């Protein structure tokens, strides 16, 4: 792994080396409903680096928010260049780090991105990590109210494995609970996990939220999750994270219910990358 000094990270920012990839989020029939924006580092010597190898260093140096903003700007440029046109509602989500969540300009930045994209069918979702979000109830209520006023959705990421700041559920409208991949991986070896996921689905329903299961890698996982009420899914079973041109090229072909795609997807290898803006 290459060295990652502050000077090298700053140089990477100046050279716009932090790139957006997109991974599809699908419905019960495999239809693409949205996508999560994931970060890569196009390192000049080491090649394309996964998020788990550099995100912690960015956060330690206070540069993760800047890298995320750069990633979103590059997404906007590529989206317009590709002339993407959506025929039905679609959402893009991204993981906001603690620095961004404490920044009063976060919602304004999201609004500016949507205005720049000029796509009426598109909605943004901010993913708040249970670990690292550390927002008190007062700040949390203010952020949620700003998001609701701007029609920007909120998701609680890593749900169930962080610090369980359940007060967030009472601070405003939550659109989604993102079920951590560890629950999905464990459910077929331990029936108690299936019961636990059922309870999380029921909890989400109380607050008018959906549940997205991360890290879905097999047909059995998908079928089991559907049986217990999960309605959104993300993982290698459906699609790997893709560079923007590849994602845009496939978008129009897979937003309808899929036929043979699931069989093809089921042969993909499991994912192991972790971290904010990570892969699932």
Structure description:
- By secondary structure, this protein is α/β, with parallel strands linked by helices.
- The protein has a single domain, classed as EAL domain (TIM Barrel, Alpha-Beta Barrel).
- Helices cover 39% and strands 20% of the residues.
- The chain has eleven helices and ten strands.
- Strands 1, 2, 3, 4, 5, 6, 7, 8, 9 and 10 form a ten-stranded mixed β-sheet that branches.
- Helix 6 (137-149) links the parallel strand 5 and strand 6.
- The chain is globular.
- The model is unreliable at 255-278 (pLDDT under 50).
- InterPro entries: Cyclic-di-GMP_PDE-like, EAL_dom, EAL_sf.
- Residues 2-255 form the EAL domain.
- It comes from Herbaspirillum frisingense GSF30.
- It holds the Pfam family EAL.
- One of its GO terms (molecular function) is cyclic-guanylate-specific phosphodiesterase activity.
Give the biggest sheet. Answer: 10 strands, mixed
Highest CATH level, the class: Alpha Beta
CATH architecture verdict? Alpha-Beta Barrel
Remind me, CATH topology?
TIM Barrel
Number of contiguous helices: 11
Radius of gyration: 18 Å
Proportion of residues in β-strands? 15-25%
Domain EAL: 2-255
Pfam families: EAL (PF00563)
Protein name: EAL domain-containing protein
GO molecular function: cyclic-guanylate-specific phosphodiesterase activity
């Amino acid at each position: 792994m290459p060295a990652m000094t502050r000077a090298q990270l700053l140089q990477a920012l100046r050279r716009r080396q932090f790139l957006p990839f997109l991974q599809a989020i699908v419905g019960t029939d495999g239809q693409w409903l949205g996508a999560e924006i994931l970060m890569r580092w196009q390192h000049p010597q080491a090649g394309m680096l996964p998020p788990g190898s550099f995100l912690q260093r960015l956060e330690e140096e206070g540069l993760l928010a800047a890298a995320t903003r750069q990633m979103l700007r590059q997404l906007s440029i590529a989206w317009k260049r590709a002339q993407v046109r959506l025929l039905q509602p679609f959402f893009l989500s991204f993981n906001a780090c603690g620095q961004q969540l404490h920044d009063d300009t976060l919602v304004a930045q999201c609004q500016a991105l949507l205005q720049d994209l000029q796509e009426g069918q598109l909605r943004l979702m901010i993913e708040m990590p249970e670990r690292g979000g550390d927002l008190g109830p007062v700040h949390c209520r203010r952020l949620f109210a700003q998001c609701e006023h701007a029609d920007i959705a909120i998701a609680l990421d890593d749900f169930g494995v962080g610090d369980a700041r359940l007060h967030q559920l009472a601070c405003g409208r939550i659109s989604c609970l993102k079920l951590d991949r560890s629950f999905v991986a464990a459910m077929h070896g331990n029936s108690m996990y299936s019961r636990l996921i059922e309870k999380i689905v029921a909890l989400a329903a109380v607050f008018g939220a959906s549940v997205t299961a991360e890290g879905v890698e097999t047909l059995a996982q998908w079928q089991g999750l559907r049986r217990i009420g999960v309605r959104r899914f993300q993982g290698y079973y459906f699609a790997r994270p893709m560079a923007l041109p590849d994602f845009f090229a496939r978008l129009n072909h897979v937003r309808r219910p899929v036929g043979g795609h699931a069989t093809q997807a089921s042969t993909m290898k499991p994912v192991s990358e972790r971290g904010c803006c990570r892969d699932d």
